[in-house]
Design a protein that fits this description.
alpha/beta; 8-stranded parallel β-barrel; 12 helices; TIM Barrel; single chain; two-stranded antiparallel sheet; about 30% helix
Length: about 350
């Protein structure tokens, strides 16, 4: 049955929309997902409403937002809890006294941190570098978003496009925030329940590099959990073996490796994939390939190989491909699905 915009409008008000489960449970007729970070241009800073709406128009199925807490326990969509790179806070005299040095994950960092600001104060900041601030102040597309606002953008996008648009909520530095009495897992789980996404079929993923964080939030919500796998952490994760992947399945429903871990770099001309996708599926895990920024394409590939490598990931069985090139990933999926490998 094909749903109309009116159908999606009704569903978005009544209940969250569902995304098909990947991995071993994915039916052959279901399309893999495109996950977009909402990376923007100078006019559309990363993770803002305008950037997310742009990637939805480009065809993304899921919008990914990293979340950090405010002093009063709101989760806001910022890649880093230090504010000076992403906002105009350094040029705001009323917040000059908030600059400080904190020890974060064993290293000293100096700047302005979300956990020292209330949500109301964060909402006064302008996203993007200070030089980008337009005369007359910020526009709606330059405001810091809350988790709830990201969900609202996804639901509105579902209505506008008559497609299911989901959210990938990323958590980091869980132990650090817990030490400040701002544990992020209960905050996110509560927000997911309030939004109505507390289901393994809901259009919601929770991502964290920390297995302890995924285990903790698994006690609080039934939303699907994703373990990102960076190349530097790959061996320690155990994901390089079938037994290691089975162990990951105890606390996650999907793995999200850097794409370089899924491409057979010994065969650059063929753009073949490694056995990891099949091994993860055998362990009951979906595979979300991440293709972010300077890490993609990986060596020995060149920038001109980007499109064929994206298509190769889909053709090789990835359940989702994620990154900051939503339009290119959508085109690669269309290419791979129109010419499936035998």
């Amino acid at each position: 049955m094909t749903l109309t915009r009116r159908d999606f409008a009704g569903l978005s008000l009544a209940a969250p929309l569902a995304l098909a489960m990947g991995g071993a449970a994915r039916a052959g007729s279901r399309r893999p997902l495109v996950i977009a970070t909402g990376a923007g241009t100078a006019d559309l800073p990363e993770g803002t409403s305008g950037a997310f709406e742009l990637v939805i128009r480009d065809g993304a199925d899921v919008i990914a937002a990293d979340l950090v807490p405010s002093r009063d326990g709101a989760l806001v969509a910022l890649r880093d809890h230090e504010l000076s790179e992403a906002t105009d806070v350094a040029g705001r005299p009323e917040f000059a006294s908030r600059k400080q040095t904190r020890t974060v994950d064993g290293q000293d960092r100096t700047g302005w941190f979300t956990e020292d600001f209330t949500l109301a104060e964060l909402k006064t900041l302008v996203r993007g570098a200070p030089a980008r601030r337009r005369r007359g102040g910020k526009t709606a597309s330059q405001a810091i978003l809350t988790f709830e606002e990201v969900v609202a953008i996804a639901r509105a996008g579902s209505v506008r496009t008559a497609r299911v648009i989901g959210v990938d909520a990323g958590l980091s530095r869980s132990a650090y925030f817990a030490g400040l009495d701002l544990a992020v897992e209960p905050l996110l789980a509560s927000a997911i329940r309030v939004a109505g996404y507390d289901s393994p079929a809901a259009a919601m993923f929770i991502s964290s590099h920390d297995p302890a964080s995924l285990k903790a939030i698994g006690e609080l919500t039934r939303a699907r959990r994703v373990l990102p796998l960076a190349a530097k952490d790959f061996e320690a994760s155990g994901a390089g073996s079938p037994d290691g992947l089975k162990a990951i399945r105890a606390y996650a429903e999907a793995v999200a490796p850097d794409a370089g871990l899924l491409l057979d770099q010994s065969k650059p001309r063929t753009a073949a994939t490694t056995p990891m996708i099949a091994d993860a599926h055998a362990a009951g895990l979906a595979v979300h390939a991440w293709t972010l920024g300077a890490t993609f394409p990986p060596t020995p590939y060149k920038a001109g190989d980007t499109q064929r490598l994206l298509a190769a990931l889909f053709a090789g069985g990835a359940d989702a491909v994620a990154g900051d090139r939503a339009g290119a990933i959508v085109r690669a999926r269309d290419e791979a699905m129109s010419h499936p490998r035998r």
